[in-house]
Amino acid sequence: MKQAHSIFLAGILMLKGLFLTGQPVKVGLFNSKAIQTFLFSPMLGEYTMESGVQGSIKLKPGSVVYIALMGDKLSARDLQGNNLMEEIITITACDSTCRFSLRPAFPAMEARQYQGTCQFRAGIGRIAAINIVAEDNYLAAVVAAEGGTTATPEFYKAQAILCRTYLLSHFSKHETESFNVCDEVHCQAYKGMNGRNPAILQAVVATHGEVAVYDDTLLITAAYHANCGGETQSAGNEWLQKVPYLKGVEDPWCSNSKSSYWHIAIPKDKWIAYLRSNGIHLQEPSKKGELDFRQDTRQAYYRIPGDSLALRKIRADWNFRSSFFSVQEENGDSLLISGKGFGHGVGMCQTGAINMAAHGKTCEEILSFYFEGIRIRNIMDIPAGPRLAVSLK
Ligand SMILES: [Zn+2]
Ligand SMILES: [Zn+2]
Fold this sequence. Notes:
With 393 residues, the protein is an alpha+beta fold. The chain folds into 3 domains: 109 residues, no CATH class; 144 residues, no CATH class; 83 residues, no CATH class. The chain is 20% helix and 31% strand. It contains 8 helices and 25 strands. A 7-stranded mixed β-sheet has the order 5-4-9-12-13-2-14. Strands 8-7-6-3-10-11 form a 6-stranded antiparallel β-sheet, with no helix packed on it. Strand 21 and strand 22 form a beta hairpin. The protein is globular, with a radius of gyration of 24 Å. The site of one zinc ion has 7 residues, from helix 7.
C-alpha cells in the first residue's frame, strides 16, 4: 500500500458494531491474474473439502487437489479419485494454524503458503480464490510484505497499527466480489506465510485491536511510504485534500539512508517536449537555465519562469521514485534530475520509523511524530464504534 491511499473527506460515516476485531478476513488471492487452474495442497493440519453429493472429504498434508474452471462450474479432483463439480468449493482448515500451499497452474505462477481456509468460486473466465484467515495472521503477513523482516519490535507495532487501521477502514472494499480485501497494493500487499517471522506476529498480537484515530474516534487515513527523503509530504500537495494529521514534517531519521537519494539524466529535448505537451509555456529557443528548479524543501509545483506543473503529475508520468526532486541543466543536451526519497511521501516514512525504533522510540512516539494529533486506541474501547472517513481514490 505504498501507492495512493484513500483520502480523508469531511463527510463521515458512523459505524457501530461493525468492527469486531479478531474476525476472520476474506482475502482475494492472485486477484488481478485471472487464474483458471489452481493446485491446492495441505501443508500442516487436516483440511476438509465439503461437497453436497459426496459429503466431507478429508485431506491430509501432502495430498493435492486440482481445481479447474469448467464452464460456469469448478471441478475439484484429488489423487484418491474424488471429483466434484460445484460453483463454490470450500476447503476448510481444522484450526487457524493449519497451513496450505496454493499454486496457480494456469497461468502458471509460484506457489505461496497460507494459513486458514480457502474458498474457490467460479467466475467468468476465472476462479476467485479466497483465503479466510484469522485477522492477526493476515496482519502479520501484511506487515512482513509491506514493512520488511529486519526491523525491531516497535517499528513492527507501528506498522501493524497502520495496517490494522487501513484494513478496518477498507473492510468493504471488495464486497461485491465476495471478499474483504485483495492481496495486492490496491489494498495491502499480502503474500501469505512467505517472509514472515515470529517477531512480526508478536508485534501484531501485542497491539491486538489497536488503531490510530484522530478526533477521538475517526480512523485515520493510514498512509505510509518507503522513504520521505528528509521531509514528508502533506496530503494537500499529494491528493489535493488537506488532512489535519497529514502535514509535512521534517524527518531527520531517514536522511542517512542510501535509498534517500536518486539521480536520473534525461535528454533536454524530451523534457521540453513533455512540458510543451502539458501546455507549459517555454521560450523559443529555450534559454540556458530556464528549466532549472530547486527543491530544498518540498514544493507542490515545478516552477519555471512564467509557468508551473504539479510535481505529483510529473512523478506519475515519468515514474520517478518521488516528487521531491530538483532539475538542473548540464553541459550538452541533458538534464540531471536529483531526487530524495521513495514513494508518495505522505504519512509514516518506513525508513525513518525503522531508525526511530532502533534508537529506542516507542510505536506511539513513532506514529505521533508522523501523524500530528492522533491517538492510538483499542477499537473495543470506542463506545459508539469508530467513525470512518469517506474515502476517495
Ligand atoms: Zn484491493
Ligand atoms: Zn523520512
